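hi! just following up on the protien thing from before. the input was this:
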Amino acid sequence: MPFVDIAAIDTYAVGWDIPLWQSTRNAKRVADLVKSFGRQDADFLIQAADHFEGVDLDYPTFDENRYLSYGPLTVGCTGIFYYNVSAQYLLDRTRLDNIIYPVCDELRALEEVFASQDPAPAVTTNRDSDTTGHGLHDVTYLTKVYDGDVYIIAVNNKDSALSVDFEIADIDTVSSYTIDR
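and the predicted 3d structure came back as:
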């Protein structure tokens, strides 16, 4: 499949009792598959920003939407598309203003960082293992360099807060952070 342009992941974790980490794991599988075809830029995430009208499901909270947006980016997805089929959701400005738009604003502020092609240093953490058996490291992260600064976008794929030590190659200091979901 050398002609892959878009590979879509359509996962609706919220409301279906599907663990949030499963969306990130599925995104990783698709990103790995696309890369196995020799493409580095063809995978694309379809983010569950809403659900179908007439189906009684919960909407993502701000934290859930944030995880569902950043998680796939940390495992190789190169794009996000927020899909919505519910007119009711579009008319509910509170949900848009408090859940979707703030995450979009964060991502938009990092747009040049995500697009940067500058070589990034190697990064390791004390959480570079899968202690849950889900097929996904406890913490996944994307390292980018933009305008001389190193950015690490990280997500916690466990159900509890983690203390994480990041070690960046060629930098003498190690930074520790606690990452909630």
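The CA atoms of residues 127 and 138 lie 6 Å apart.
The chain has a mean pLDDT of 79.
cheers
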